[in-house]
Design goal:
Chain lengths: 288, 429
């Protein structure tokens, strides 16, 4: 009996714990579903609004009475959206590639080389992170004008060739890379170039992927620099295209929502395909 | 200091250019830039602007026009950057609020200094004298009114009927407006009145019209003293405060005001007629939208001010000056104003085209909402740009104080305005 009692005694609390856990899980799931709905609703509303006719744009119905793609047709006709999307993709991809490259090279130098003034130099690079782009926009603009690059995609990429954030993140990752592995590679006769590209970079794939996603999304959403630099819609980017539907004479909500849906698609695709990496990149770098 | 250096640089280059006179015609191919804020947004404004540029280029094969889209709030800073960067700035669609700054600091050229007097007089013939005054500073023409408009009172005729009001008798004075608004408040859920007087993009254009209509002014005629704490101005702001205290109007953002009116949730809306197209789209099939003249203060004459922009010429090269002037002439011709009025929604500076079937005759008949705006053209009291490089700070400080006096907790309207007037006076050049 004693044995039975002793055996049974702990079972009851476990059952209660299981029951509580089930209840907790149910509440948790309900809460998460609710939060998810709140998060998804603006995207849903953007899409629904993009399908509404002009005179029903302020309707609060959850689905338009007469859904149509007119706003999409108008947005594509009024603004060179396809060209802007291609431009934005080129600029975002190029900035991602060059920032990763400069970040890898500078990060390796800071992490692996000991040279006089390295700490000061690293501090100086870190300080540039604190300077907002708006502060250096006009000097950058004058420089780009002197280079004859106004209204070119190259000028949209140029100021973003190096990023303090990328350098700091990669330097930190490389510092925490096991020195034994690097030493082993050196004993095998590898030089710095080989160690960087054959040993370190392949092992930092996760960090690099996270960083690439962050850079791509940030560049995709860039607004102020293209606003100052571009002189024609054909050489501009999609964020400027969206702004074109907003004016002091009124916001064209239907076409704006259609253009926003089109502009969001590549980023939504990145989220869908690389969901885990995106979340991990935000966690690694802090919320940006 | 930076502004002074910029002004000196601009003045030196302009002086050098003025030494040569503008040729009578453009004989060699030339490209000019046209900084334009209609091109910075999608829709009718951009389409009409591109159409006008295409027509102009077809008629002037030697002149190529490069349209540069710039948001209106960015024009002054963009021009500063472009002038310093050595970019060619030839013709600019300049918001009226920035015209004084453009003349004093951004190299806007007085037309009297470059265009032969006879040619200039010939082009001005047929233009509304009040409209021409819009671009005049210190006796010279630095801008030609391009896309400009006056404030009109849009109203929802259905809500008027619901409140037992006659939509054929819209309020003509602020007192009548208050009476109508109280009835609307009592019998509907709608916001009785919204005005575009306050807001980050409004600055003081509409406020100047309100205060002028009560016999005051925000600044004196020679633009040396701020006068918005005068008894007339205080009375005008106190009237707005009374409307706010009665719950007739609220301090909404411009976007919220426009959307409220377009969605049929606001009964009356005092705003530039330039938003007419936007309101019509919302009203179609939902409610009857009408427009009336700006309300008066009792039997005092209404003095509506103007929103919008002028064309200012900034070229320093004589050939480009001629090309820019030719474009300016075309854009402010009978044909230009026909397109501007019928396709963008602004006022024509040439009244003769209004009833001319070759130009706006048929269009005006089909668009009765434009009538109050046209009728106000004769009563127009031109917007006075605030002076000096601090014009924006002056305008923002003044409007912040007026907004606080209208919607704030402090009933001391006179005290708030007097303190702000002293503060802004110190920012004057």
């Amino acid at each position: 009996m004693m044995t039975d009692a002793a055996t049974l005694a702990p079972v009851q609390p476990r059952r209660r714990a299981l029951a509580l856990s089930g209840w907790d899980t149910g509440v948790g799931h309900a809460l998460m579903i609710l939060v998810s709905l709140v998060c998804v609703f603006p995207i849903y509303w953007m899409i629904v609004t993009s399908l509404r006719p002009e005179n029903a744009i302020f309707s609060t119905r959850l689905w338009p009475d007469a859904a149509s793609l007119d706003n999409y047709a108008y947005a594509l006709r009024a603004v060179p959206m396809q060209r802007m999307l291609v431009n934005t993709f080129i600029v975002s991809a190029a900035v991602t590639a060059v920032q990763l490259l400069s970040g890898i090279l500078a990060g390796y130098a800071f992490a692996r080389w000991r040279f006089r003034g390295s700490a000061i130099l690293f501090g100086a690079v870190a300080l540039t992170w604190l300077v907002p782009l708006q502060v250096v926009m006009i000097p950058n603009y004058l420089l780009v004008a002197r280079l004859g690059m106004i209204d070119t995609l190259g000028a949209l990429i140029l100021p973003h060739i190096a990023s303090a954030f990328a350098i700091m993140l990669l330097a930190q990752s490389m510092r925490s890379f096991p020195t034994e592995v690097v030493e082993a590679a050196r004993m095998d006769g590898g030089n710095h170039w080989q160690i960087l590209w054959q040993v370190i970079v392949p092992n930092l794939r996760g960090t690099l992927a996270s960083l690439a996603i962050l850079i791509f999304i940030t560049t995709w959403n860039e607004y102020f620099w293209p606003l100052l630099l571009t002189r024609s819609p054909e050489n501009s980017v999609v964020q400027i295209g969206l702004q074109m539907f907003i004016s002091s004479e009124g916001t064209q909500w239907g076409p704006l929502m259609a253009a926003s849906t089109m502009a969001s698609l590549p980023i939504l695709l990145i989220y869908l395909v690389l969901q885990r990496q995106v979340i991990s990149s935000f966690m690694k770098s802090g919320l940006r | 200091m930076k502004t002074t250096l910029l002004a000196v640089a601009v003045a030196l280059s302009a002086t050098a250019a003025l030494a040569q006179s503008m040729p009578a015609e453009v004989t060699e191919p030339v490209t000019i830039t046209f900084y334009n804020y209609n091109l910075a947004s999608a829709g009718n404004g951009a389409d009409a602007t591109r159409k006008m540029i295409a027509e102009f280029e077809a008629a002037h094969p030697n002149i190529h026009v490069e349209g540069v889209p710039v948001q209106p709030q960015d024009i002054a800073t963009r021009l500063q950057a472009d002038i310093v960067a050595g970019q060619s700035v030839d013709l600019v669609q300049m918001p009226f609020a920035a015209l004084g700054f453009a003349a004093e600091n951004l190299g806007a050229v007085a037309l009297e200094d470059i265009v032969p007097a006879e040619e200039l007089a010939g082009h001005f013939e047929g233009m509304v004298p009040n409209g021409l005054e819009l671009g005049r500073l210190n006796g010279k023409t630095y801008g030609l009114a391009y896309t400009f408009s006056t404030p009109v009172l849009f109203y929802n005729a259905d809500l008027f009927r619901k409140a037992g009001l006659d939509p054929d008798q819209p309020p003509a004075t602020w007192a009548e407006l208050k009476e109508a608004a109280l009835k609307i408040k009592a019998s509907t859920d709608a916001l009785p009145l919204a005005t575009g007087i306050y807001g980050p993009t409004a600055l003081d254009w509409l406020m100047q019209g309100v205060i002028n209509s009560n016999g005051g002014a925000v600044i004196n005629a020679d633009r040396t003293e701020m006068t918005f704490a005068s008894p007339e101005a205080i009375e005008a702001i106190a009237m707005l405060r009374d409307l706010a205290q009665e719950g007739i109007t609220e301090n909404l953002s411009i976007t919220a005001q426009m959307e409220g009116m377009a969605a049929g949730n606001t009964a009356m809306y005092l705003q530039t007629s330039a938003i007419q197209g936007y309101l019509v789209k919302g009203a179609t099939g939902n409610f009857e939208l009408r427009a009336a003249a700006m309300p008066a203060f009792g039997d005092k004459p209404v003095k509506p001010s103007n929103s919008g922009s002028a064309l200012s010429l900034h070229s320093t090269d004589p050939v480009k000056q001629r090309a820019a002037w030719e474009l300016m002439k075309y854009l402010t011709s009978e044909r230009g104003y026909t397109i501007i009025t019928s396709e963008i929604g602004y006022l024509p500076l040439r009244p003769s085209i209004v009833n001319d079937p070759e130009y706006l005759g048929e269009w005006v008949k089909a668009h009765p909402l434009v009538q109050p705006n046209l009728a106000q053209l004769e009563k127009l009291a031109p917007y006075v740009p605030l002076p000096g490089p601090n014009y924006l700070q002056i305008g923002i400080s003044m409007m912040d104080a007026m907004e606080m006096a209208t919607f704030g907790n402090d009933d001391n309207v006179a005290g708030i305005l007097t303190e702000a007037q002293e503060r802004t006076q110190r920012l004057m050049p």
